[in-house]
Design brief:
Layout (H helix, E strand, L loop, with lengths): L1 E4 L5 E7 L10 E3 L1 H7 L22 E2 L5 E6 L3 H7 L4 E4 L9 H6 L23 H7 L14
Antiparallel strand pairs: 1-5, 2-4, 2-6, 3-5
Length: about 150
Amino acid sequence: MAIYRSPYAHARILRVDLGGGVLEHGGIAYGPNDLAKVIPNQFPLAVEAPIKYYPPFARDKARFVGEPIAVVLANDPYKAIDLLDYVQVDFEPPLKPVVSFDDALKGDVLVHEEVKSNIAMYRHMKFGPVDKVFSESPHFSEEGVLLPEA
C-alpha cells in the first residue's frame, strides 16, 4: 500500500482522478469517496467543537501537509509507490496555512469553517499545589524532570 498525501498545508481539493493508469499497471486505487464507503466512521474526536465529519483522509480540503487523500494497493510495496504517479489530484491555489498558535487564535484563516473558530476545545485545569510539590521534591532538574535518587 502507498498513500497519496497532500503537498499543501491548506488547500481545497477540486478533483481526484484515479483513472490515469493505476489499474492498467497492476494496482488498485481508492480515493476519498471510495474510502468513505470502506471507512464509514470518522476519527473519534474528544473535542467540543461541532466538527460533523472528520475522516482519516482529506475529502474536500487538505488541512495539513501529508494528509492522506488516496491509497494505492499493489502486490509489491515498491510498485504501489511507483503507481502513485498515476494518481492525479487537482487543488485550488493553496489557502493560507495556520502555522502557529498565534495564527490559530487570530482566526483569520479557519481550519474547519463549520466551527467558526480554530478553538476546538477550552478547558481550565487545576492540579493542586504544583509549586509546593516541586519545591519539596528531593530531586529536580531545570527541565522539570524528576531524577532518580542517586
